[in-house]
Design brief:
This protein is an alpha+beta fold and 270 residues long. Helix content is 23%, strand content 22%. It has 6 helices and 10 strands; from the N terminus they run αββββββββαααααββ.
Length: 270
Amino acid sequence: MPELPEVETVKRGVSPYLLGNKIARIEVRNGRLRYPVGEEIHALEGEMVQTVSRRAKYLLIETDNYRLVVHLGMSGAISVFDSDFPPRKHDHLIIHLENGKALFYNDVRRFGFARTYGIDEMPDYLNQLAPEPLSDAFNLAYFSGLLKDRKRAIKTVLMDQKMVVGVGNIYANESLFLSKINPHREARSLTEKEQEILLRNIKKVLEKAIEQGGTTLKDFSKPDGTPGYFAQELLVYGREGKPCPNCDAPIIRTVITQRSTFYCESCQRA
């Protein structure tokens, strides 16, 4: 699933083509996404794009009057081609621009969505999100308050979008490994020093992943079609049975909150 670094990569990739340009027309080839694409999306036609931003794992494209919220789901990707580029299989939505370019939304599993709102509307699922992990608001005071008294596994907390947005499975695994914290530990059990180290490593991992263009494991690609290269930097994720890069003990795979979890029993003691 595309997480914060992947969506940030998409945002940076599409912004130069969108900003200050008009949307000529929107071609809905298959509107049966997680939520059906409504007729209201065509209200964006003729509108000039004023801002392109990201909130957690959501891409926000805003004009003077409307906001298009795009979520890539499990397998979504956005590519930029010339407007006359022949659509591929699973290209469900194409946003044609007056500059001759077009954004192609491709989603094999169709778990993503594209929803249109008035510019003054802000849906609850955006309002209820936690602070951005790379923002100043995501600091030690906030993080400590988040973990205090929580009996849930620390990895489960890191995956909760109402507490920590956009980290997701890959980056939670990597951050915990770098911090030498067992993913099964109760969140409340972390010392202040461990909280500080984990906070720092969450930011470090996300920043590095963004620099590398995200992680391509199967479906994700950048808007220019190239893969994200952070997969080459992964220390534990997807490395079950392979030697730990620190101590050579085999990487363990388990399941926490229905998600594959990878860690080193030697380096990340319970």
